[in-house]
């Protein structure tokens, strides 16, 4: 027999129930409004308050996004060959040289998608969830991102990538959060690129001339601003060839294909309400 609690957890696993930390807690809505990043520009501080930096041995390693008070959505390849115990997550961060009011957390566990595979060129099912050793409290600088609906399609929408990654192939990481706008390509346009032989249906492509994610942006979010007024995470920065090379669009893990999996592995986290 199902108890009320077991039914609640079953529905959470199916993505039907949202646990709100407070009535004012809304995912994907920054309190600061701003109307790997190559060709990017400075983001208004804390205008993307779900974005986290994952540092390894005090150096920029990957990006990620807060989806509950204790879970970060990132890329599988960020953890597959590296010990997460050597990593630290910076939450509520804008400037790597100004860590005042930044929450730092160690990682207690990482779940990489069980079908993750990698070749010399690309990663498939490149998605992972990192559990923070201690939960965070949502505030004006720490807000979780909203997840898309299962199977939601963002073709031809304009997305935003944010991160502290390298600002060029041979250049250093950015000290401040950068953002860039990219157009999400149709599956047909994606398959017509020179990456076609490496692509899978769970991947999506995005491109704008002179703009791209780069090393250190891996795992960060590709965001879509919805008409209802909140951002949702359409993709996870996954792989590419070079940075901002017009022959090769950036490739992202399609988050909408993994909603049941994400919900299954985050049932013990507190969420915020959606619009």
TrEMBL record:
Name of protein: Uncharacterized protein
Top-rank lineage group of the source organism: Eukaryota
Organism whose genome encodes this protein: Mythimna loreyi
